[in-house]
Amino acid sequence: MKKKGFFAFILIASIIISSLAACSQPTETPEISTDATTVSENNAPVFMLEKLPDIGSYVSDTVYSRRYPEKRETLTPGEDYGKLIPFVGTFKEYNFVDYETGEWEEETYSFSKVGLMTTQGEIIVDAVYDYHDTYELDNGDYFIILERYDDEFSESLICNSDGSWVINKDNCNLYYPYENKDEDVIILTDFSDIDWETETGSIKLMVYDTSGNLLFEKENCSPAYQGGYSEGYFAVSICENYFGDDSVDRFIDIDGNIAFEDISPQSSFSNGIAIAKNSDGEYGLFSVDGDWIQKPIFESIYQRGDYYICSVSGLYLIIDKNGNTVDTVAKSKVGERDIEFFGGNMYYVFTDYSYAEVTSFYTNAMTDALIMCKEINQPATNRIYDTDYFYCTDDTHTFTYIVDVDGNTLTKLDGRGTITIINDDYFYYTKGRYTDSTNEISVYSFKDFKKLWSGTAKNTGDAVTFWMYDTYAVKAYATEESLSASLTPYRTYDILSLESGEPIVENAKKYSFSKINGACYLNYTDGTYTYVLDPELNVLMKTPNKYND
Amino acid sequence: MKKILILSAILLMMLSLFACSGNEPGQTETTVEQPKPVGNFVFTKDNFPIVGGSLALKPYGQALTATILGIPRDGAIDPEIWEGSTTDKYVEFVNGEIELLLAYEPSEEAIKYAKEKGFEWEITAIGADALVFICSNQNPVESLTMEQIKQIYSGEITNWNEVGGNDAELVAYQRNRDSGSHTLFDKLIPLGDKLIDPPKERKVESMIGLLEAVADYENSENALGYTVYYYLTNMESDKLASSKILAVDGIHPTNENIATGKYTLVNDFYVAIPKNLPEDAPARILYNWIISAQGKQLLENENYVAK
């Protein structure tokens, strides 16, 4: 019995040892034949699978269509394109830590390549440009600019939304005015004459209408301020040497001629009025008819909506667009108050910079009619940008209240956070970004003050951000892995539905949106492929990406 | 006691065998339910060879990687390594940038390059594909003879009405010389110096470019082009909405006709590794698997014609 047990032990031990030896990495590789017929599931000496797994079917990784078989780097105007959109064909971005300024600074260099496609996804101009932007016109249409650069040269392609006209220019910048423009024009500044090494040369101003026709060009001239072509005039700076200090600001007319001698524009015309200075440097309000409607006696003037806040001798004069003084406020009375106008209402804003930067809002400067939340009897401390709504928190920051100008509560939100307006319908509320150390933020999406959904982004790296675009919400975060691999955290993005908060794309490396006539096209890369999705999330383009970080 | 010992032994054996079966946690992303490997080698992302080659074999390369590593197809491969001409891929293989090559027949340039570098490869035919001729589906022509194809590409036939079509210029596109498609064309339709040198705009540098020239564009109605069957019918089948494959000598290319050789314009494609790799080198182990019955089964699953 003992003998049998001993043999059994030896047998078992040898089986175990041999089976363990069989699964160790090969020290002596058994001979195998390269003859296909000798290797099978039954006699695989090295590697074989029990059976093939189900991996699904192949899906082509190049989904797109083209108008032309050959590569196109420019746009042929006038063909029947329908609407055109810019798209990123290759996302590529590098992060460096630079020491150029004397301090280590993180710099991001984008080498993404941009082209043009139709809204059906047909590629018209290949992705060879370095930059793109889209400008909406007052009539709801838009135009597109593509630019590409090398060390000494830049090239711009500007076209309207349907590609019916194209402007191709070298060494130009597009200047697009946002304020006081009552007629859309396209303004280019031509830097071809500039020698950056010798610091000589001047800029040429070129002005086109929205049909791509050149209205005029003027040497030694560049746009001044944010005003564009408004009520027949441009505010421009005139100088023979771009690097000199002899420039003067003047209005010029549509033919490029100086319009009002010795009048120095400080804004463009709006409602027939522009802020201007006389030759003594005093501010006044200047009429498009060529007269001062408020004589140049002021120390400063700034515009708020349809009103002008004019400062003189310890007073603020509030003057409407007809030149009538609607209020006069002594500076000594109001201190460092700003005055804002929104939705036809006038608000006086007081920021106490000496203590915690507390901001208070009043409906009347003289009576100190503070805007209060009636529900908690607390003053409003913030205004939701571009609206007539305000918000405040209770003493313990348990809730944030959104109130109207009369102090009525519109909605009550958990905790303390910030509110950002997306458009007329949506806003979102961000909690936790600044107020706690959990390294996560919560976002609540609202439409008409009713909560749609909420989400939380917990960071595992150094960055949590969560913001929203007109059509999508974007959640960004960095990972620990990337942090250990690079000085720059490797951020990825989740793109969510604004309406539901459901993810549309997860772990995108880069993304961009093209919003055209209210429809949003999503362009992103997962690192391996680049995609363009139409507003219904159909894939217009899928191509291998050259992303490298 | 004996029963206990035997049961213990069986249990220990099962445990030890289970422990050494592949796919240990953390070794690979096992989001695809992968059958256990048989044998004593486990592929991981770290030891998996760099696989690349001809564009038309990319689906197989993707399936191979996903199958062996047990990962999803999407993202299994770097698509960039499948871009470029077949000759480019042989050059990368010779230079060591690709460790296991899946490719169509090497061009003379590729063979010359390998010889110059003193590089020898071990190569096995694993499947077959066909050279196919395509034109717009608006074109009434359905078939060409071999003789007509030779006359077209030697410039003797320049109008579709000479092959039974409309009175229209016959716009014959060609691929660049270092492409796998052109190597196939040269081998199967040897015209030598008689091959016309087309204008630049009729010489297309990519497979997709040629399909687009024939299928997608205005004025493509008169175009004739060639490509490989698998690429067109499996990878760019949407192009067949506006184009069609011509029969040659009355025979349409199908997987069956390619396998039997009834469609005559066929040629093999290959797997290759550097010669004299050790038996335990991952590239050789994978090479052996590709040429095994299981490798052939995967090839057929991907709709290729396996050898």
Descriptive report:
The complex is a heterodimer of chains A (549) and B (307). Chain A has 549 residues and is mainly β. Chain A contains three helices and 47 strands. In chain A, strands 2-7-6-3 form a four-stranded mixed β-sheet, with no helix packed on it. In chain A, strands 8-9-10-11 form a four-stranded antiparallel β-sheet, with no helix packed on it. Mean pLDDT of chain A is 79; it is low at 1-41 and 482-488. Chain B is an alpha/beta fold. In chain B, the strands form two sheets. In chain B, strands 2, 3, 4, 5, 6, 9, 10, 11 and 12 form a nine-stranded mixed β-sheet that branches. Chain B has a two-stranded parallel sheet with strand order 7-8. In chain B, helix 3 runs parallel beside helix 4 (108-116). Chain B is elongated and about 65 Å long. The interface between A and B is large, with 54 and 72 residues.
Secondary structure topology:
The complex is a heterodimer of chains A (549) and B (307).
Chain A: H1 2-23, E1 48-49, E2 65-66, E3 84-90, E4 93-98, E5 105-110, E6 113-118, E7 122-129, E8 131-136, E9 142-149, E10 154-160, E11 166-170, E12 172-175, E13 186-190, E14 204-208, E15 214-218, E16 221-223, E17 233-238, E18 248-253, E19 264-265, E20 273-277, E21 283-287, E22 292-298, E23 300-304, E24 307-312, E25 315-319, E26 325-330, H2 331-334, E27 337-342, E28 345-352, E29 358-362, E30 372-373, E31 378-379, E32 382-383, E33 390-393, E34 399-403, E35 409-414, E36 417-421, E37 426-431, E38 440-447, E39 450-458, E40 464-468, E41 472-478, H3 480-485, E42 491-497, E43 503-508, E44 510-516, E45 519-525, E46 529-533, E47 539-544
Parallel strand pairs in A: 2-7
Antiparallel strand pairs in A: 3-6, 4-5, 6-7, 8-9, 9-10, 10-11, 12-13, 13-14, 14-15, 16-17, 17-18, 19-20, 20-21, 21-22, 23-24, 24-25, 25-26, 27-28, 28-29, 30-31, 32-33, 33-34, 34-35, 36-37, 37-38, 38-39, 40-41, 41-42, 42-43, 44-45, 45-46, 46-47
Chain B: H1 2-20, E1 37-38, E2 51-53, H2 58-69, H3 86-94, E3 100-104, H4 108-116, E4 121-136, E5 143-144, H5 146-153, E6 171-172, E7 174-175, H6 180-188, E8 203-204, H7 207-215, E9 223-228, H8 229-235, E10 243-248, H9 255-260, E11 266-274, H10 282-290, H11 293-301, E12 305-306
Parallel strand pairs in B: 2-3, 5-10, 6-9, 7-8
Antiparallel strand pairs in B: 3-11, 4-9, 4-10, 4-11, 4-12
